[in-house]
Amino acid sequence: MAMGSSVDYYDRDKQLKEFDDAKIGVGGLLDTGITTIPRFFIQPPENLVGLRSYPGAVQIPTIDLSDLNSTTARSHIVQQIRDSAAKFGFFQILHHGIPLSVLDDTISAIKAFHVLPTEEKKPHYDRSEKGGVSYSTSVDLFRSKAANWRDTLRVKTAPVPPDWEMVPAICRRELMEWSRQTKKLTEVLAELLCEGLGLPRDKLKELKSLEGSRMLAHCYPYCPQPNLTLGIGAHTDPLLLTILLQNQREGLQVKIGDNWINIKPIHGALVINIGDLFQIISNGVYKSSEHRVVASSSKEPRISIANFIGPAEKGNSHSYGPLPELLSGEKPALYRNLTIEELLAAFFSKEISSLVNCFKI
Description:
Radius of gyration: 20 Å
Helix content: 25-40%
Order of helices and strands: HHEHEHHEEHHEEEEEEHEEEEH
Structural class: alpha+beta
Largest sheet: 8 strands, mixed
Mean pLDDT: 93
Oligomer: single chain
Strand content: 15-25%
């Protein structure tokens, strides 16, 4: 694959197509021995501001979910979650009910897939997501200003379970168990977040807002020029909420005010963040915050598995907007109603970024 170009002429579309057609991903590029990154990975300078978190930066809260069945403890947990979701849009949780062995096994299995020889991963490379399982680099490769320095295995797990035989055998069992465990955790988090808004615990389930789930298993490998690119650029997540498992490599940052803050990995913890749809239905009480992943010169890759939770996509004509229970004369609706089809059409029509402002009244 000819990745070079002349000094005077750069055919970006041609190079993107050559890269995608080669089906080698970022990992395959590294296997060729490159010492500089292809031009289409280079980010505009404005996207690279604040790559290193500033000293003394605030940390997002870590919330212990122990004793949820205790009325007193639950009330305190609900308040912590509400405050975190409203101020940061992010928090970490401990003692969430998923065994540490499941977390570690899932990370290990995803790393094992991503470090397979390129020829063994190639058969899984598919940008179309047919059958609910695919592997590729940068979902917005042909829409973005710059490609992301990461590879991703995607599995759509709900409302229709995938054909698990299509998931690479090296991580199939672990992802099946991870999917089962996170389904239970999703319901717990939904109840706590509803209580934080003063809503009935089962409100999100009643709205059929939890029926869809998509799992993205990322590898952010060594980058020879980490100051020129990003693992993924600044964006917000489009759906209701995200459950994220990460290994002990830093890189995830959230924007608090004008500063980018590192989210320090905690072994055994999960990162939870609010998505655009939850900001909309909460009428801005909960915040969908910009976040990104920086590239790294570390030889040890950053591994993460993100579960994106939201309404089912196909055949869903339900309209979602600010909940009437949260509106008043003093707190009018900030957003218009929309369908999940509209939300995802907006997401997939442009470079990954933030969608909330698209639906402001």
